[in-house]
Amino acid sequence: MRNVFLVARRDYLGYVTAWGFWLGLFLTPVLLGVFSLAPALAASTTPTRYYTVIESGTEFADALNEEFGRTRIAAARAQITALGMMGQDEAAMGARFDDAIEGGASPEAALKAAGVQNIAALPQAAYIPVPPPAQTADALRPWLMGERFIETPDGPLPLFAAIIVPEDDEPIEYWSENITSGELKAITGRAARALAQERIFEARGIDPSILQTIADTTRPIEERRARPTSGGDNRVTIADRAPYFAAIGMAFVLWTLIFSVVNYLLMGTIEERSNKIFDTLLTSVRLPQLLAGKLLAVLAVSLTLMTFWGVGGSLVSIWASSAISGEAASTISAVVGAALKPAIVGPALLSFVLGYLMYGSIFLALGSLCDTIQEAQTLMTPLLVLLMSPLIMFMVAANDPTSPIVQVMSWIPLLTPFLLILRMPTEPALWEVVAQLGMMAAATALILWLAAKVYRAGAVHGTGVSDVANWFKRLVPGKKKASG
Amino acid sequence: MTAETPLELRNATKWFGNFRAVDSLSFTVPQGSIIGFLGPNGAGKSTSLRMALGVVSPDQGEARLFGGPPDLKALHRVGFLPEERGLYKKMTPRGTIAYFAKLKGMSGAEANSRADELLDMSGLEEFARSRISKLSKGMAQKVQILSTLAHRPELLILDEPFSGLDPVNQQGLEDLIREEHERGATILFSTHVMEHAERLCDSIVMMARGKKVFDGTLDEAFKTLGRGARIAVSDGFALDSALASTPFSAVHEPMTDDQDWWRITLPPGRDAQDALRAAIEAGAPIAGFAPEEARLRDVFVSLVSEAEAAELEAPTPAPVPEEAA
């Protein structure tokens, strides 16, 4: 046991004193934070864009303005729906909001009137209409191409888009140099549709306000959850969804940790093989002790990462608590509470340990066959596929953890660690959880045993990647190769 | 055989696929001896040592350390310097020596103190906390040798310890081996450089093509060669005819200088002085005399050549299944 500890300690110190470890320690949360905030950042950093409408009159431009207004109102209404999920009285708040909007209030004022305390930023008027600097598409080209500029409060800027509305029933032309940002085009489409609806209603003598009446009288759908006991509040709240969010987070953290640390095993083993240390080590420790020490070292590395990220995340949360809304804080609290429930945290911890041992021993064994990083790179493609497959599956599971494909795939031991966590909020049958954990444990034992065999072949007998390739070639008929 | 015989191989055989690397090898390393384990490259020396240490298992026969199987308890009493040497390049010499000493059962404090002591002794103290990757190859080799000695092993097994060392360091290593022997360690080292074995060993075990071709003392090794002497005569004297009635036979050597040299074969029990006396008594005008000293190199070449010739004539044996990887 002492030798296992000594091997683990040496390897652990070797890993954590490498600059790459510290880079990963600090950079991973930063990058994850940046990527998760990217959509919000992209939205907040989108510049104000200026467009013009060329038509006879202002009918289409007015329709477009109304559509922008409806988009903002819908975004504001979504905030009330979210608060309803957190247990607030959505119906009463919604009624106050609608009354305020009908009274001509802005969406922000309507939210305030509805009693929303922390109003999240609504989509701003990112598209501002300007008078057309020219009257034809050809004449507008220099402004659209950025060769000429229009005067704006932000300074001289090119024209983002021009919407040309012909007088007849010809298609409305949407001109822009930017063909990737489709938001304005989509709003233009919705405005054209609303306008057409209005015209048809008028032509058939129907009051257009009937549309609003329909909207006002449509009965809302309240999502309720069937619970084991009758009575009580059955509305779907954030507490109902929290376990799913927690499971997705934990599965992702598990995958990230495994993905982050198995490379250490691969590279560490290659270093030992290329530095010819195995013979010295194997006359001091036995092979199972060496393997156990190495796996323990990397497990300690991942626990270090988890601890650092966990403590760091908690500190950042405490520091940021004053800056985030009460609703967001209660959401975080509900998700953390759900993650700590034994029904989720228990299988998650077992899945982490067994999943790590499975993937870790595979990488350890493959590393023992490689003399160089270049050789390891030849193995990296199948290894990456192996590592990416759980990621793909758990994206499916995150969308619908009860899907039959997820249920079937969760019986595959290499996928079980991730999919079982994702399925836990759906409360699968106990026998199923126990059976999957059992299968995973048995598969882990088998993989460890096989990995020890491969490791022995690589470390003791010097078997290399080319030997393995030759072995496979011998299995192919007509490709037999003399041994020796 | 006492229970404490440091090392013993009994009919150890090892196959790698269809290649028999070691064939029924048996030898014993007695307590307190220095044994040279000699053989040309590819003779099976390293495989034999790895079998002795339990790194690989023999397909047939057995290896015993201190009277038992080569388990960790026995291995803690052994210091092993493998032929293929390597260290953790990011570790320091002090950390490396202490690490391997701890793996051999020393306490942390004792291992660190021993590492300091060995580094001081070898003049590496100023590099004690440098990374191994910053050291010269010779220094790194020294660190590996010190790691082998750190836990004061009772049995030292050194696989080609002199390879890669410059003459000064080779001499230093010879001195170190003598010091370890004086301390009480039993030493087995493999080499294909005969001069080291001649200077250091009590006995030698010689291998060729996986088989043992000699096991005995140096004197016994020399006796396997017919020894001789060289006598130069003047005036075209026919020494072969003159010695025809004596137990000595003379063969004329090609002229290499102005002397007329004859090589005399010494029969068992006769030495070079006896041959000289016989030549004088036969009336030979002696111009020069050179008794030939037996060298281990000659013994080695002779025994290895014989073994290789015998191997070429022998039928190929059927392989046994390779050990499961």
Biggest pleated-sheet summary of chain B: 6 strands, mixed
The total count of helices of chain A amounts to 18
Percent of residues in β-strands of chain A:
under 5%
**Rg of chain A, nearest Å:** 31 Å
Q: What is this structure, in a nutshell?
A:
The complex is a heterodimer of chains A (484) and B (325). By secondary structure, chain A is mostly helical.
Describe it:
The complex is a heterodimer of chains A (484) and B (325). Chain A is mainly α. Chain A is 67% helix and 5% strand. In chain A, helix 13 runs antiparallel to helix 16. Chain A starts with a helix and ends in a 9-residue tail after the last helix. In chain A, 30% of the residues are buried. Chain B is α/β, with parallel strands linked by helices and 325 residues long. Among the domains of chain B are: 7-77 and 153-222, P-loop containing nucleotide triphosphate hydrolases (Rossmann fold); 226-291, Alpha-Beta Plaits (2-Layer Sandwich). Chain B has helices spanning 45-52, 72-75, 93-103, 108-121, 137-149, 167-183, 194-200, 218-223, 239-242, 272-281, 296-313, and strands spanning 7-16, 19-29, 34-38, 60-65, 78-81, 155-159, 186-191, 203-208, 211-217, 228-233, 249-252, 260-265, 286-291. The longest helix of chain B has 18 residues, at 296-313. Chain B starts with 6 loop residues before the first strand and ends in a 12-residue tail after the last helix. The A-B interface holds A 3, 6-7, 10, 14, 17-18, 271-272, 274-277, 279-286, 453-454, 456-457, 460-461, 463, 483-484 and B 16-19, 50, 53-56, 72, 75, 78, 80, 82, 84-91, 99-100, 102-104, 144, 147, 324-325.
Observed structural traits:
heterodimer, A: 484 residues, mainly alpha, four-stranded mixed sheet, two-stranded antiparallel sheet, 6 strands, B: Rossmann fold, Alpha-Beta Plaits, four-stranded antiparallel sheet, 25% strand, elongated, disordered C terminus
Map the helices and strands.
The complex is a heterodimer of chains A (484) and B (325).
Chain A: H1 2-16, H2 19-45, E1 49-54, H3 59-85, H4 90-102, H5 107-114, E2 127-129, H6 137-144, E3 150-152, E4 155-157, E5 161-164, E6 173-176, H7 183-203, H8 209-217, H9 238-274, H10 278-282, H11 287-320, H12 326-339, H13 342-367, H14 373-399, H15 404-409, H16 416-423, H17 430-459, H18 465-475
Chain B: E1 7-16, E2 19-29, E3 34-38, H1 45-52, E4 60-65, H2 72-75, E5 78-81, H3 93-103, H4 108-121, H5 137-149, E6 155-159, H6 167-183, E7 186-191, H7 194-200, E8 203-208, E9 211-217, H8 218-223, E10 228-233, H9 239-242, E11 249-252, E12 260-265, H10 272-281, E13 286-291, H11 296-313
Parallel strand pairs in B: 3-7, 3-8, 5-6, 6-7
Antiparallel strand pairs in B: 1-2, 1-4, 8-9, 10-12, 10-13, 11-12
